[in-house]
């Protein structure tokens, strides 16, 4: 038996992997998005020393809807400029629940939430102008803790329960096929401690480190080494605090009061990169609303008036976790050093 076959035996990848890879658009293909950005604010600020068509960004997320709440406007911005933007979603979100009060009793949703989330994800990707693939793993769920604060054990065969090498294999293959210069995911805390988010961080780091090494994960595609790895940090305390104060100053109730009060002494994460995206908030919001079962259109996602958000915090922020190209101390572009 060849070493490749042995590895495939040992690293049992999800059945959908072949379908995922065969659906992946050819590298360099774009979606007919304009390659010349109009001259209006942040849409005109992308330098062009390297054709945007040759730039590729891969965002790795845990569940359908995470891409729309964590860095979505950046995805829309780079796709608009002609870069290849691909969202990879590790799980199907099967163990999510309906979070939109208007839809809690919706019979179609309750009959097959997973199917609904697939439709919602397709609509969100279309709203952002990006491509999307499922990595085919099963949502681990995040049940409420019992009275002692303990959560039940993870379900068998769910994403977060898998050995790292098995969970990372489809993503390594995807990186080799799509060949992104930039990979975006969560920090080691997952952004919030859902086990699938923490596992998503682990597989993204594994793929960033291993995809360029021909000795690791031998498979059909040639090794590819991404240049930069980022952790999305859109929910930083300074941003929440600034938005909170701006809302309160207008006499409106802030959606962040409880969150700030409970923040405690957690240290702020390092932010290295602030991408101007105010012109893409509308696309981000459309993508959020596309996840109708998960997003309450009257809820906290839309509680900050957009004119305040544009004025107070017009960027999406990132932490540069690793780079194989020289970088500046402060960046405003995920492709800085790559172009
Ligand atoms: Zn999630």
SSE layout and pairings?
Blueprint: H1 3-10, H2 17-23, E1 56-61, H3 66-69, H4 72-80, E2 84-91, H5 107-111, H6 113-128, E3 131-137, H7 164-178, E4 182-185, H8 195-210, E5 228-232, H9 237-249, H10 257-261, E6 273-276, H11 281-290, H12 306-312, E7 315-323
Helix pairs in contact: 6-11, 7-8
Zinc ion binds next to loops.
Explain this structure to me?
The chain has 339 residues and is α/β, with parallel strands linked by helices. The protein has twelve helices and seven strands. It has one domain (3-37, 49-235, 269-323): LmbE-like (Rossmann fold, 3-Layer(aba) Sandwich), CATH 3.40.50. Strand 4 (182-185), helix 8 and strand 5 (228-232) form a beta-alpha-beta unit. The model is unreliable at 1-23 and 25-47 (pLDDT under 50). The protein has a seven-stranded mixed β-sheet, with helices on both faces. It is globular, with a radius of gyration of 20 Å. Helix content is 34%, strand content 13%. The longest helix has 16 residues, at 113-128. Zinc ion binds at residues 62-63, 66, 194, 197.
């Amino acid at each position: 038996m060849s070493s490749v076959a042995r590895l495939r035996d040992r690293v049992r990848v999800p059945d959908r992997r072949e379908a995922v890879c065969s659906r992946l658009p050819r590298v360099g293909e774009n979606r007919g998005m304009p390659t010349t950005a109009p001259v209006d604010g942040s849409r005109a600020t992308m330098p062009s020393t390297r054709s945007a068509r040759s730039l590729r960004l891969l965002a790795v997320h845990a569940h359908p809807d995470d891409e729309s709440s964590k860095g979505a406007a950046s995805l829309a911005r780079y796709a608009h400029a002609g870069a290849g933007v691909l969202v990879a979603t590790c799980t199907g979100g099967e163990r999510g629940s309906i979070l939109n009060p208007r839809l809690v009793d919706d019979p179609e949703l309750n009959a097959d939430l997973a199917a609904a989330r697939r439709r919602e994800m397709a609509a969100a990707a279309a709203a952002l102008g990006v491509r999307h693939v499922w990595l085919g793993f099963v949502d681990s769920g995040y049940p409420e803790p019992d009275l002692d604060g303990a959560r039940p054990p993870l379900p068998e065969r769910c994403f977060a329960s898998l050995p790292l090498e098995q969970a990372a294999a489809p993503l390594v293959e995807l990186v080799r096929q799509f060949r992104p210069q930039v990979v975006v995911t969560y920090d080691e805390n997952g952004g919030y401690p859902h086990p699938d988010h923490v596992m998503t961080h682990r597989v993204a780091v594994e793929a960033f480190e291993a995809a360029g090494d021909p000795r690791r994960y031998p498979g059909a595609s040639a090794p590819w080494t991404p240049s930069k790895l980022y952790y999305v940090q859109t929910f930083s305390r300074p941003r929440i605090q600034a938005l909170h104060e701006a809302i309160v100053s207008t006499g409106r109730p802030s959606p962040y009061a409880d969150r700030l009060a409970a923040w405690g002494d957690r240290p702020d994460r390092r932010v290295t990169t602030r991408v101007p995206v105010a012109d893409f908030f509308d696309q981000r919001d459309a993508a959020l609303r596309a996840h109708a079962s998960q997003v309450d259109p009257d809820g906290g996602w839309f509680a900050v008036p957009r004119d305040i958000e544009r004025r107070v915090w017009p960027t999406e922020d990132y932490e540069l976790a690793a780079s194989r190209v020289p970088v500046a101390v402060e960046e405003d572009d995920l492709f800085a050093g790559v172009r």
